[in-house]
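step 3/5: co-fold with zinc ion
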Amino acid sequence: MTSVDLESRIAANAARLSADLEAFAAISEPGDGVTRLAYTALERRAHDVFAERMRTLGCVVHTDAAGNTIADLPATEDNGPQSVVGTGSHLDSVAQGGRFDGIAGVVAGMEAAYLAALSPVPRRRRWRFVAFAAEEGARFGQACNGSRMVAGLTTLPDTRRLRDTEGVSMYDAMSEVGLRPDDLAADEWDAAQWHAFVELHVEQGAVLEDAGVPIGIVDSISGSTRLHVAVNGTASHTGATPMHKRRDALVTAASCVLAGDRIAKDSAHHGTRVTVGRLEVSPGAMTTIPGRVEFVVDVRDIDSDRQRTTVEQLAAAYRDAADADGTAIIVDVIADTSPVVLPAVVKDHLAAAAEQHGLGYRLLSSGASHDAQQVNKITPTGMIFVPSAGGLSHVPNEHTDADDLACGVDVLLAALYRLDADE
Ligand SMILES: [Zn+2]
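step 4/5: write tokens
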């Protein structure tokens, strides 16, 4: 029997995957869905569960300065290439999110490690299973923090700059849960040690479900630029101030929201997405004209130049709106990540791995950001998508069928073996 024949007999177990997802889902704030925010005690507890499991499978486990948990399954051959093949995703969630976003990729790694550790198929390289910290931008405005830190894209000064809505800096949040932001530089990954990385993730869209295809292979991931905008007008009495004497910050902000919608929908922006997801009006009283409005803007694009041009166009439109209303406006870029095209060398292995298991696949792009995007700065990286029921994500009823996830793990494991066999 050849190695490939042997590998094909090892199959992921849907019931085991469901049990693991259930265990992580229980580590949550009370309330609907799963709430396990970045750099909180709950996130650390989930990492501890992952670490403990990986130790029982024979992995050497450590937590790095950024809070990423890294589990190394040693090679079984002595004279293999001295480079690492990796997989992983994240364990934090948005507020009242689902149990699959990120976690699916971590439990996929746990299952792949379990199957690989039992299998007689030799491994020439070290296999690294990673649970990244703080992937969701929900708390600090910037996504993929743990993976950005190992890729050297987010460094110590950034942790002092980034703050949550309570004003807590990332530096303090990390320190509070026992992490070591001062040591980030020392834990950046060395490209020379790496061979390749694969992240499995739920699609968070409905392309696979609509097409009836079990496996997605991601060819590109959108970039994202995030803005914080403050509009200053004059708060005064709604009854006593005539319309022509007003400097209403919310009127300006409303023009800004509409300008973003108009720019993203024009013919030059097919594929650009502009969203204002949070807007705070001060003083926020029915009988006071809004004196100050703060809002955040998320600009996503698959085209790097267009992403930055869109930001410039937005800033210009915002200034025009403020000029027209006699208000003042300040636009700050709080996070900026470029889109990436994922390398063919890993995609080809993923396609071959799907074929090995007789599973249909389709190439698609990812509108959401992922840790894979950052890891690709260090080593060639690929992404497997599994179907999301109804395309829903970041909500309590986010769902992926356990059998679909098991198919994804089969492809992941076969891809890891294929990458392991590369020269
Ligand atoms: Zn995710």
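step 5/5: annotate
Residues 90, 101-102, 135, 201 surround zinc ion (CB under 6 Å).
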